[in-house]
């Protein structure tokens, strides 16, 4: 512990630069991806009947375990429709809050960014995806 404090006192500029870089990356990622929810915040939103959970993983992953009440709309099917500007299955949920869930949070981030300008009531993503949901020891149901 003494060596760490000595290092920190000698290299304060380096440590400050590292902290600023980490903060900057987190800030950029959060702005790029839209609003994110923790597993507990997602539970509160869904229990209040204020959101529809959309699972973007493929059918096999969805059937191996998903959040209770979530709908499976694979990212691979939605991506070409969005790129072409065509109507998607998500359009029927425009009057509801959507919570997008994928395996690690990357696909939901990408999709949330594309849906933001549309007329959805609210678009959220589960930060960290199903992996974070499992790390928080939240339940999954299987088909």
Explain what the structure shows.
Helices cover 51% and strands 14% of the residues. It is built from seven helices and five strands; from the N terminus they run H-H-E-H-E-H-E-H-E-H-E-H. The chain has helices at residues 2-10, 12-33, 39-47, 59-64, 75-84, 106-115, 129-135; strands at 35-37, 51-55, 71-72, 97-101, 122-126. Strands 1-5-4-2-3 form a five-stranded parallel sheet. The model has no long low-confidence stretch (mean pLDDT 86).
Write the topology of this structure.
Layout: H1 2-10, H2 12-33, E1 35-37, H3 39-47, E2 51-55, H4 59-64, E3 71-72, H5 75-84, E4 97-101, H6 106-115, E5 122-126, H7 129-135
Parallel strand pairs: 1-5, 2-3, 2-4, 4-5
Number of helical regions = 7
Proportion in β-strands: 5-15%
Q: Rg from C-alpha positions?
A: 19 Å
- Average pLDDT taken over every residue: 86
Please trace the helix and strand order, writing H or E for each element. Answer: HHEHEHEHEHEH
CATH topology of the largest domain, what is it called?
Answer: Oxidized Rhodanese, domain 1
Count up the domains: 2
Q: Helix fraction?
A: 40-55%
CATH superfamily of the largest domain: Rhodanese-like domain
Low-confidence segments, ≥5 residues, pLDDT <50?
Answer: none
Outline type? elongated
CATH architecture of the largest domain: 3-Layer(aba) Sandwich
């Amino acid at each position: 512990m003494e060596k760490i404090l000595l290092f920190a006192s000698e290299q304060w500029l380096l440590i400050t630069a590292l902290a600023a870089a980490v903060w900057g990356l987190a800030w950029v990622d959060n702005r790029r991806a839209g609003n994110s929810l923790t597993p507990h915040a997602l539970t509160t939103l869904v229990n209040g009947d204020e959101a529809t959970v959309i699972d973007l993983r493929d059918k096999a992953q969805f059937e191996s375990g998903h959040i209770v009440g979530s709908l499976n709309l694979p990212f691979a099917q939605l991506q070409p429709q969005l790129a072409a500007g065509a109507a998607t299955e998500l359009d029927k949920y425009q009057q509801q809050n959507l919570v997008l869930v994928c395996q690690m949070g990357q696909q939901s981030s990408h999709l949330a960014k594309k849906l933001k300008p549309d007329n959805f009531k609210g678009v959220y993503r589960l930060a960290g995806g199903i992996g974070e949901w499992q790390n928080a020891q939240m339940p999954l149901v299987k088909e």
